[in-house]
Amino acid sequence: QHGRVKIKSTAQQEEEKRKEREKKLKIYVAARDACFSKRKEGIWDDEALQLTQQLLSSNPDFATLWNYRREILMHLETVKDEDEVQKIYEAELSFLESCLKVNPKSYGSWHHRGWVSARLPRPDWARELSLCDRCLSLDDRNFHCWDYRRMVVKMSGVPVDQELAFTDRLIGSNFSNYSSWHYRSTLLPLLHPESPEPPSPCRKSPQTSPPPSPQTHSHRVCEEQLLKEYELSAWFYYRWLLGRAEREEMISCVYVSRDEERVAVAFSRPVNAQSVGLLLVLDGQPQRVEWRSVHPRFKHSPICDLPPGTISDITNEHNLTVHWTEKHTHRDCALYTGRTESYCRDSATDQELFRSELSVEKTSVLQSELQSCNQLQELEPLNKWCLLTIILLMRALDPLGYEKETLDHFQTLKEVDSMRSAYYSDLCSKFMIENTILKMEYAEVRVFSISDKNLTTLCHLDQLLLVTHISLSSNQLQQLPPQFAMLQCLEVLEADNNCIGNLEGLYHLPKLEEVYLKNNKISSLADLQPLASCPKLKRLDLRGNPVTQTANIGSELAELLPSVTDLLL
Amino acid sequence: MGTQVKDVIIKPDAPSSLFLDKHADYIAAYGSKKDDYEYTLSEYLRMSGIYWGLTVMDLMGQLPRMNREEIIDFIKSCQHECGGISASIGHDPHLLYTLSAVQILCLYDSVDAIDVDKVVEYVKGLQQEDGSFAGDKWGEIDTRFSFCAVATLALLGKMDKINVDKAVEFVLTCMNFDGGFGCRPGSESHAGQIYCCTGFLSLTGQLHQVNADLLGWWLCERQLPSGGLNGRPEKLPDVCYSWWVLASLKIIGRIHWIDKAKLRTFILACQDEETGGFADRPGDMVDPFHTLFGVAGLSLLGDEQIKPVNPVLCMPEDVLQRIGLQPDLLS
Ligand SMILES: [Zn+2]
Predict the structure, then answer these.
(1) What percent of chain A has pLDDT over 90?
(2) Is residue B7 part of a domain?
(3) Is residue A332 situated within a structural domain?
(4) What CATH number corresponds to the domain at position A29?
(5) Which chain A residues touch B176 with a CB distance below 8 Å?
(6) Is A1 inside any structural domain?
(7) Does the beta carbon of B73 lie under 8 angstroms from any beta carbon of chain A?
(8) How far, in Å, is the centroid of ligand 1 from the Cα of A420?
(9) Nearest Cα to A50, choosing from A34, A67, A63, A74?
(10) A426: which chain B residues are within 8 Å (Cβ-Cβ)?
(11) CA-CA distance, A242 to B327, in Å (whole number)?
C-alpha cells in the first residue's frame, strides 16, 4: 500500500491487465483453498509446505500460512531424526531468505526467521549475523532487520564493543544514519554505565581509537562536513549525550497549612498521586488520610486533609513526616506554635533543579563544546541544530548569565525554522520560567513575577507550591492549565494582557483572594466557572474581556461568585 | 555520502480542497469489488480494512451507506473457539483483528454480537510474564500488541482483567533516548510505535511517564518542508505517518508544535480527484487505509466538515462518548 505510483493507461492496456489479474486470481484462490482444506483435515505434508511456499513468496503477510507452516514443521520434528530436522529448517531459512529479498519489511517473514533460528538443532548465528550485515548494507534503516540483529546478538552473545564497532563502520559510510545512532544509545550505557562518550556531530568520522573516556576526546570542528551536510541524526544523538543525567525521584516539598488542615506534596518528577503509596505520620502517629490530586485532570500532586481539629490549635506544635514508601524516602516538616503554616523542601538554589536537560558534572567538557559550536555558528549562522545546541549548552553552564544571548538565539531559530516556531516559543518560555524561579529562590521570596516575557506556556508549576503572589501580565498565555491548581498558597494572581480564555487551573485554591484578568479572552460565564471553587475570592478584574458584554453580567456573576465584593467589569 | 532532505514537491495543480463525497463513494464501492485480485490478496487483513472503511465513513457522516447486518454477521463468523477474532474466515485469530472487530462493533453499538467474555479471556491469555503481549499464540512480541490489548479491553470496559502495572512496565522499557518508543526493548523509535505507546499510556492513565517535551520535539521534527510528516528521521512524508505523529502530539498536548496549515495542504494534495480516496503521497495509488488517516488527520486539524476524531482510538468522539470512554490527554 506504499509508494505505488498511479500510472495512466489506455483502455486496451486496462483490458489486458484485467485478464491477467483474473488468471492470477484463479491460481491464487485455488492454492489458498487447497491450503485451508488440507489444514482443516490435519494434513502436514510436503505438498502443504509447497503450497504455502507458493503463496507466501508473493504474499508474505498472509500470517495464517506461516502458522500452518509452523504446525507442519513442529510435526516433522516429531517424526524425523535430528539431521533431517536440521536440513528441513535450513531449507526453511533459505526459503525465508528469498522471501526477505523480495519483501525485506515483512513482519511475518522476520518473525518466522526468529522462530526457526530458535528451533534449529544446531543454530548458525554467525550466518544470521552476516545475513543482517548484508541486509543492512542494502537498507541501513530497515528496523525489522535491526531488531532481528539484536535478537541474534543476544542469543549468540556478541560482545557490546564489537557491535559498537559495527555502528562505527555504518556511521563511517553514512554519517546520517539514525538507526546506527539509536543503536549506539542503547550500547553505550552497557559499556560505560557512568561516563558517556564525548559528543560527536562535530567530528568527521567516528573514532577509530579505543572507546574514549570523557577526558580523552577531541573537539575538532569539521566545518567542511557540517557545511555540506544536514547532520540531523547526529544532532539528536548529541542532545541525548549531553543530557544523560537523570534526576533522582524524591519528595521535593512538603507544605502544611493550619487553617485548611491540609498537607500538600510536590515531587521531583511527575508521579501518580493515587498510586504512589504515601504515608503521613503526625506526631509519631500514622494518619488515615485520603490522598487526592489537586485537580481531576492533573494527577501528580497529592494533597490530603487532616481530620478536623487535628492541628487547628495554634498553641500546639506538630511534627509531620511524609513517607514515600515505594521509593523508601521521606521528608519531615515541623509546624511550630504560633505559626499558621510550615514547609520543608530542597535547598533553594539547587543547581540541578533545572538542568535535567544537560548533566552538570562535565562543566569543562560543556565549555569546550560551546566553543566548538560557537565557531561552527560563525561559519553557518542559520544552522538551527547548532543554534539549539548552543542554547542548551548555555543553559547548562550559566542560565542567568547567558539569558540575553539565549533569547537572541531563540529569535533567530523562530525565523529560520518557522514551521516549529511554537516549539521554540514554548521552550523559551520554559527557560524563562526556570530563570525566574532561580532568581526568586536567590532572593528567598514567595513572589513570582514574570511579566512581558512572551510566555506562551506555563510549566514547573509544581515548583511554585509556596508562591503567594504571581504576576504573569503582558504575555501570550492562552490558558491557566490544571497544573495551576498546584499553587496552594496563592493569594494574588495578576494576569492582565494575555489571551487567556481558559481558567481550568483556578480550581479549589484555598487562599486565592484577588484575580486580575484585564484584557484577556474570557468569553462566557462557563469560562469563569472554576473560580466558583475558590472560597476566599474577593476581588476580580474582568475589564476588556468579551464576557463583560454578556447581558446581566453583574447579577449573573454575583450568583456564580457570591464571595466577590469587588468586581471590575 | 551526504544526505539531502527527503521530501516531495506539491505541484501547483494538486487538490487543495476536500472532496468528501468522492471519498464516500470510493469507500462504498471498495467493498463491492470482492472478486478483485488485489482485494483477495488483502484478505489477511480484511477485518482492519473494514474498520478503516467504516470509521472514515462514520467520520464523514456516511455510515448508513455500509451494510451493517452483513458486517456484523461476518465478525461473528470470525470469532474463534479461543475467543480471538481473525481477519477473515479461514484465517487465524490475532490481537490486531480482535481490536478492529471490537472497534467496528462499537461503531455499530453492538458488542454483544460476539462473546465478550471470551474476547477478554483471549486478550488476557496473551499477556506474558514480563507484561508484554504476544499478537497471537505464536508469540510475536510488539508494543503494537500492548496497545491492541488495552484498547480492546478499554472499549469493552474490562481493563481490570489484565496486569496493567506489568503491561505499563514493559512498554516503558521500550522508551528510547529520543523519548520515543520502538517495537521491543532496544528497538528504534518509529511514529507508528510511538502512537501505540502514547495511546497505551493514555488508556492506562500513565501519560506522566512520557518526556513530553523531548518526544514532542522529535515528533514535530517529523514535519518536512512540504508540510507532510514522516515516520522516522530521513524518510519520506506519508499521510498515515502524518496521522500517527499528529495523534501522538495531540495525546501529549503538543499538537501546536507543527505547522497545521502546511500539513493540511499536504494531506489535501494526497487526494485522488478522479477516483476519490487518499494515497500515501501525492500522485500515488489510493487505498482505504490512507483514506481513513487522511480524513482523521484533517479532523484533528480542526476541519469542521468532519466529525471530531479521538486521537487515541481513531474513532469518532461521539461513539466514545456513548461508551463512556475518555482517554487521558496531556494539557
Ligand atoms: Zn502510509
Answers:
(1) 61
(2) no
(3) yes
(4) 1.25.40.120
(5) 182, 185-186
(6) no
(7) no
(8) 23
(9) A34
(10) 257
(11) 34
pLDDT tens per residue, range A158-181: 999 999 889 888 887 876 678 888
- Count of domains forming chain B: 1
Interchain pair B1, A174: CB under 8 A:
yes
Among A95, A503, A466, smallest CA distance to A253 is for: A466
Compare CB distances from B280 to A2, A179, A482 and report the shortest one's residue.
Answer: A2
B235 Cα to the center of ligand 1, angstroms? 12
B35 falls within a domain? yes
Q: Taking CB atoms and an 8 Å cutoff, what residues of chain A touch B272?
A: 6
Residue B169, chain A, CB below 8 Å: the answer is: no
CATH number at residue A271: 2.60.40.1130
Determine the distance in angstroms separating the CA of B155 from the nearest CA of chain A, rounded to an integer: 21
B329 falls within a domain: no
Q: A458 and A316, same structural domain?
A: no
Q: What is the CATH number of the domain that holds B110?
A: 1.50.10.20
The residues, ordered by sequence, that sit 6+ positions from B325 with a Cβ below 8 Å of its Cβ are B154, B155, B157, B313
In a domain, B98, yes or no: yes
Which residues of chain B carry a pLDDT beneath 70? 1-4
Complete DSSP assignment for B80-145: -TTS-BBSSTTSPB-HHHHHHHHHHHHHTT-GGGS-HHHHHHHHHHTB-TTS-BBSSTT--B-HHH
Q: What is the pLDDT of residues B146-159, one digit of tens each?
A: 999 999 999 999 99
Q: What is the ipTM of this complex?
A: 0.95
How close, in Å, is residue B114 to chain A by CA atoms? Answer: 22
| Chain A positions in Cβ-Cβ contact with residue B190 (cut-off 8 Å) | 143
Give the domain range for residue A174: 11-186
Q: Write B68-75 long-range contacts (CB < 8 A, 24+).
A: B68/B108, B71/B104, B71/B108, B72/B105, B72/B108, B72/B110, B72/B113, B74/B50, B75/B47, B75/B101, B75/B104, B75/B105, B75/B113, B75/B114
Computed over every residue of chain A, the mean pLDDT equals 86
> Shortest Cα distance from B94 to chain A (angstroms)?
9
Q: Does the distance separating the beta carbons of B188 and A146 come in below 8 Å?
A: yes
